[in-house]
């Protein structure tokens, strides 16, 4: 299972490089079901792995002029604050045992996995359906919808803090709709935002868990290698077609997690 887990870790980076997002949604299931990490700790580990991978992935996009730093800062500030406070204050405050439903004890770990599974279902729908969103022709056309940017940034940050996923499927449409970025630039900018909020959010966990740094470094390194492979494959494969197939896979995974946590 450990070998399969390391192989699956490569898919995290490959999907980020190939389709511009979605890979982070695999991180927590890989850590929990294949590498044996506790669900609550897995959400913390995921922040480090996703943040490191996204940061490396953002660099070539920046070199290509596909990262809008101003937009990343405006969207990233509320997101970073929300994810840090969620990891530092909210997650530790959730009790280990919450309530019982029909003889099933809902624990903190089960709650985390159920929240994550629901996010997977929403992410899969976003990847499966054809999204047609308008975009500005160039950066001179940018008009920031500040109230919506602040709200969306805070919501994405809190979700990231709770479940450890990057939230690219929420960030990219928000950047296009609320800041007027072209789609390719929105993808590159989202990687920088994901990197910043995930890594800073991870610092909120320091002191709460005893980190397995060797596991973190190994999985992160494999995922980073995967993003380079994904970038290479993106030049030869139509990512749009793969995105739908990946979306169906994520949907099946999300439903499986819900069934496993509640009934198995």
Structure in a nutshell:
With 264 residues, the protein is mostly helical. The protein has helices at residues 2-19, 27-34, 39-63, 69-93, 108-128, 146-163, 168-179, 183-203, 213-234, 239-263; strands spanning 97-101, 104-107. It has one domain.
Q: Which structural traits does this protein have?
A:
mainly alpha, two-stranded antiparallel sheet, globular, 2 strands, 264 residues
Notes on the protein architecture:
The chain is mostly helical. It has one domain. The chain has helices spanning 2-19, 27-34, 39-63, 69-93, 108-128, 146-163, 168-179, 183-203, 213-234, 239-263; strands at 97-101, 104-107. A hairpin with a 2-residue loop joins strand 1 (97-101) and strand 2 (104-107). Helix 4 (69-93) crosses helix 6 and helix 4 packs parallel to helix 8 (183-203). It is globular. It starts with a helix and ends with a helix.
How many helix segments?
Answer: 10
Overall SS class: mainly alpha
Domain count:
1
Spans where pLDDT lies below 50 across 5 or more residues: none
